[in-house]
Each structure stands twice: as C-alpha cells, then as structure tokens.
Amino acid sequence: MKKVDGQARDQAAEAAVRLVLASRSAIRGEMLRAAGLAIETVPAAIDERGFERRWQADQLAPHRVAEALAREKALAVSHAEPGAVVIGADQTMALGEQRFSKVATLAEARAKLVTLRGQRHELHSGFALARDGVVLASGVASAQLTMRDFSDAFLDDYLAQAGEAILASVGCYQLEGLGVTLFERIEGDYFTILGLPLLSLLAALREQGVAAV
Fold first, then answer.
1. Residue 121's pLDDT is what?
2. Which stretches of the chain are assigned E, i.e. beta strand?
C-alpha cells in the first residue's frame, strides 16, 4: 500500500471542503480568489437593517455590529449549505457616535460626503466562519480614514465621474478607484478598508484546517 504523507492528507482534506462566501460583494470574492481560495458565492438573505436597528437600540458598538452581521450571514447560509464552510462578512461605518448605512441615490451620497469631508471616520470590517449552523470563528478589524476638505466643485465632479457604482459602498467611495482622491490620510489594513479583514480570515481558515493559504 502506498504511504500518503501528512501534507498530501491535508491537501486531500482541504479539497473536500466547500468554501462558500455569503456575500454579493464582487471585491470580497476577488480578494479571496486572488488569495488562492476556490469559493462559491451564495448571498445571505437576512434583514441587515433590522438587525442593525436592534443592535443600535442595545447600544452595541459599530465594530461589534460588523462582526455580529458577519456571523448572522455565515449562519444563515450554513443552514442551507450542509457541510460547507461559509464565510460571512460585513462592514460598518461611524463618525464619532454617528453611524452610517448605504444610501440609495447620488443625492444622498453627496449629503453623506459633505458630512464626512474634513473629518476622520472609521470603517469596521467583520468576518465569520460557520459550518452546519455553528460559528467556528469570527473577528473584526478597523481602519481610520481622514477626508480632505475638498470643494463643492470637486465633489460634484467626483460624483459625476464615479457614478452610481459608489452606492455599493457604505462610504460612497472605492479606494481602488476614484475614491482615493477624497483622502489625505488612511490608517489601517487595505483589505479591511475594502470590506474584509483578509489576513485574520486566512489565519482562521488555517486554524480550522480548511485551507493552507
């Protein structure tokens, strides 16, 4: 009988595990695939705003809301995808005590960016791993971003160029695109700012024996 070494056994075990991303976010999927993970995408169908209102009423801190939403998403999809390891992710944004959600129109985006300009706000990105209705691991990372005190004319030009794509972001910007021109200072992990604390997630996958990345 041919002997199978430990590395081969580990690789075989990893190959047998399905990885599912419980998010519609294209950038999260791109980050995970670029890191060498073979993932499927099954968006979670949960009432995010309802959960946020409940946790805000309980005065849960914004970074804890991000982690809690990631856990809810991972759990919801794990019930529908037995045996799979499900990755949940979410991001919240706060300016001091003021919390923000995604907006629906460019007019609302303009009003939000007027509020944020010249200010330092925080992004909190949470992740969770779940399997068969059990959370295996979760965590959250934060970043601080300071916007320039740009003019109204600059803002209007930014909105015209960036278009409705910015509505997919809670901050109404994408740092991998024109959004970077809004800022004078950024403190934090780039992946966290994009919406997924990738380094912490990869460490959790290794700890669970799911992936060798």
1. 97
2. 19-21, 39-41, 85-95, 98-100, 120-131, 134-147, 183-187
